[in-house]
């Protein structure tokens, strides 16, 4: 993957850091049916743009956890 492509996708640890959440919460998000992800074998990657859009949608609904809303 090129650097620009790599930056467009997050692995679970990148997601954890990007959203400032714990690793357990990152895995819980990955298990949600409505959370944007791509499965590659036994791993998930998360399109950064889709994660941002999901966060905006959840925040507008008032559903995002407090820790995520503070971002």
How widely separated are the two ends?
28 Å
Number of strands: 3
Shape: globular
Main CATH class: Mainly Alpha
**Percentage of β-strand residues:** 5-15%
Mean of the pLDDT scores?
Answer: 85
Helical residues, percent: 55-70%
CATH architecture: Orthogonal Bundle
Structural class: alpha+beta
Instruction: Give a short account of the largest sheet.
Output: 3 strands, antiparallel
Describe this structure in words.
By secondary structure, the chain is of the alpha+beta class. It contains 5 helices and 3 strands. The chain has one domain (3-69): Multidrug-efflux Transporter Regulator, Chain: A, Domain 2 (Orthogonal Bundle), CATH 1.10.1660. The chain has helices spanning 3-8, 12-19, 23-31, 48-61, 66-69, and strands at 9-10, 38-40, 43-47. Strands 1-3-2 form a 3-stranded antiparallel beta sheet. The longest helix has 14 residues, at 48-61. It is globular, with a radius of gyration of 12 Å.
Characteristics:
71 residues, alpha+beta, Multidrug-efflux Transporter Regulator, Chain: A, Domain 2, 58% helix, 14% strand
Task: Summarize the entry for a quick read.
With 71 residues, this protein is an alpha+beta fold. Helices cover 58% and strands 14% of the residues. It has a single domain, classed as Multidrug-efflux Transporter Regulator, Chain: A, Domain 2, CATH 1.10.1660.
């Amino acid at each position: 993957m090129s650097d620009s492509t790599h930056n467009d996708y997050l692995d679970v640890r990148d997601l954890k850091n990007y959203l400032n959440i714990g690793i357990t919460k990152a895995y819980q998000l990955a298990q949600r049916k409505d959370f944007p992800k791509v499965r590659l074998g036994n791993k998930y990657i998360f399109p950064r743009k889709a994660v941002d859009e999901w966060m905006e949608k959840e925040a507008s609904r008032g559903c995002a956890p407090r820790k995520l809303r503070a971002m």
